[in-house]
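Weekly puzzle thread! Below is a chain. First person to post its structure in token form gets bragging rights.
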Amino acid sequence: MPSSSSSSSPSSPSAHRGFTLVEMLVTLMLLSVLVSLALPSFRSQWRAAHRSEGVQALTALQLAQETYRSRQTRYAQSLTELAMPDQSPHGRFRLSVVQATPDGFTLEAQAQGDQARDDRCQRLRLVLTQGQVSLFSFAAGQTATAGCWPQ
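Winning reply:
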């Protein structure tokens, strides 16, 4: 005679363990919604952090210009004269000497690659005029923006 034991039969609820397909799909759907909400903010913060590369490159160019001027009677007209590269160290910005006069210069860092998607700060500009440094930033086109340079 079969005894009544406490072992579960295959049809009892305690015999099925794990997740159902529906539970997995709901979990994946919720996870994908969370990622889609967080990803744009993450990318925006990532690009903002990479702006420092452009700022550092312009600062290095400014120092190179001052060193050049201490040896010459003028500021350098090109990156070649400064023996400086035309891109930032990781290639996120294209660098240029926009203008150079005996009294000052204008340097620019233009975002490129993925960094060019930084809508607010596509161009960083450093201007030295009669010993005074001014910092500018521009969105797409000629629209001036604020908040791209560290305070």
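Puzzle host: Confirmed. Bonus trivia for everyone else. Residues 51-145 form one domain.
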